[in-house]
């Protein structure tokens, strides 16, 4: 059953990937409940994660079951065992799991997306350093960034910042609370040529926005975690509770007519339009969902325009 399903989706999606010249993409995501895997290709390497579940097997039985699945994956994808990197993926609200360090092997390699280079790590963290579901959104930012002042909030490893720089941004500021990911973002920027004035700012985004200059930025990207209670924050973040306040803070630092790309992967998210201080809000979730995430992506994305003052 698993062999048939993986063969079918791989054949179908790989054609689209080749046609679009995409080498990093999601092959399989819990398509069958009996095989709760996430499988992603990063050029010649595979990220394999198993979603945590109550499987009723002993540890030995589960290990044997997992090992029985690997030959199917290697045969269909044509990638040997030594290039398959396994993780157990616990279901958590939002993306705060990206900050959980699982190992210290420091095995980085460079992967390409749309002609740009990114450092990928499949060993040390739950997430890889590149959220594949935002591939289209990154392209939109690059297309709009020419000569603009761009702000990337909760920047993670800075992929949006790299795209903005590649699009000819005049300035790119990247803000995150993790020094580890800010360093990773800076290294990603250095991998790619023609970098504009770039600043990597270690700060709590909510506090930083309170002091940011009014009307300064032309384009902002904000992809926050669903929930965060880091000890370094003044207050915990709950995206359903706090999103309107956060968006309004961003609208304050945008010039009139400036654009915010806001996204969240909180499955039960409901945008509170009545509390957001602009009427120009466009849901672009469907337009920004890549071919390899159709029907399996729980993520919302909005294009929000700052009003005239």
Unreliable residue stretches: 91-99
What top-tier CATH class of the largest domain fits best? Answer: Alpha Beta
Average pLDDT over all residues: 91
In the CATH hierarchy, the architecture of the largest domain is 3-Layer(aba) Sandwich
CATH homology superfamily name of the largest domain: Vaccinia Virus protein VP39
Percent helix:
25-40%
E-strand count:
15
Detailed description of the structure:
The protein has 309 residues and is α/β, with parallel strands linked by helices. It folds into two domains: 2-90, 2-Layer Sandwich (Transcription Regulator spoIIAA), CATH 3.30.750; 133-305, Vaccinia Virus protein VP39 (Rossmann fold, 3-Layer(aba) Sandwich), CATH 3.40.50.150. It has seven helices and 15 strands. The chain has helices at 2-19, 59-77, 135-144, 159-166, 179-191, 205-211, 239-253, and strands at residues 24-29, 37-42, 45-51, 84-89, 108-113, 116-121, 149-153, 171-176, 197-202, 217-222, 227-228, 237-238, 254-264, 281-283, 300-305. It has a seven-stranded mixed beta sheet with strand order 9-8-7-10-13-15-14. A four-stranded mixed beta sheet has the order 1-2-3-4. Strands 5-6 form a two-stranded antiparallel ribbon. The longest helix is centred in the N-terminal third of the chain and has 19 residues, at 59-77.
